[in-house]
Amino acid sequence: MTKAIFITGGASGIGRAVAILFAAKGWRVGLGDVNEAGMAETLALLPADAGSTHRLDVRDPAAWTEALSAFAPDGRIDVLLNNAGVASGGPLVEVPQDEIDRVIDINFKGVLNGARAAYPFLKSAAPGSCLLNTASAAALYGTAGVAVYSATKFAVRALTEALDSEWEADSIRVRSLMPSFIDTPLLASPSHAGSTRTKRDVVMAAGLEFTPVEQAAEAAWTAVHGERLHTLVGKTARKLAFVAKWAPSLARQRGKKLMAERSE
């Protein structure tokens, strides 16, 4: 039986790279996103008849049920990649309330909605099915200048850990990816409201590395098939995990450096 993966945020970035990798390995791929043009571009990169597109706003529980049912009318999905997300930065007191709400609604509530909607599909495909959530290296230590984003990714990390225990009896694995800086369209927007510098500019000025998106896709494949609860992606993520555990004062210094870069 051909295995199936449904990917949110499938129009670009990590979602697109994961779609390409899994389709190349013979999986059937469902793409969910609000960006229909981007999904069409991703679909064109897949083998013929390997995928389908489903307009999905992850903030809408009813839209989740509709998209997953359309993708898997047999009621089985082997992997759900909860990957849709938005980036936001700037000092907390300067971030508009509507931006705070949007980040929380997409980055965390969207993941909650996906987990709840996907559960029966994953249970039907168990054992061996997997809920894979895209967290972030920002979930390793609170990241100054992106407080709301970091908090949502900590929440995704906590949800992953909780559901891995809750769903063990159903033979559903729950895993997370913790990528560092991946050069995706998320980094093309301003670093915070009122700034003309992009997030990409800030990362480069701080001397931090970008991880190729293909590496994130390979990490997703490993996470789905492995036993590691959280999979770090990129040198920066691995360094931050070490520092957060053994030298948290250095992590605070890193945050101050990033804040200084953002203020220039």
Itemize the secondary structure elements and their pairings:
Elements: E1 4-8, H1 13-24, E2 28-33, H2 36-44, E3 51-55, H3 61-71, E4 79-82, H4 97-125, E5 129-134, H5 147-166, E6 172-179, H6 199-205, H7 213-225, E7 230-233, H8 235-246, H9 248-263
Structure description:
By secondary structure, this protein is α/β, with parallel strands linked by helices. It has a single domain (4-263), classed as 3-Layer(aba) Sandwich (Rossmann fold). It is built from nine helices and seven strands, in the order E-H-E-H-E-H-E-H-E-H-E-H-H-E-H-H. The chain has helices at 13-24, 36-44, 61-71, 97-125, 147-166, 199-205, 213-225, 235-246, 248-263; strands at residues 4-8, 28-33, 51-55, 79-82, 129-134, 172-179, 230-233. Strands 3-2-1-4-5-6-7 form a seven-stranded parallel β-sheet, sandwiched between helices. Helix 1 (13-24) links the parallel strand 1 and strand 2. Helix 3 packs parallel to helix 4 (97-125) and helix 8 packs across helix 9 (248-263). It is globular, with a radius of gyration of 18 Å. The N and C termini lie far apart (55 Å).
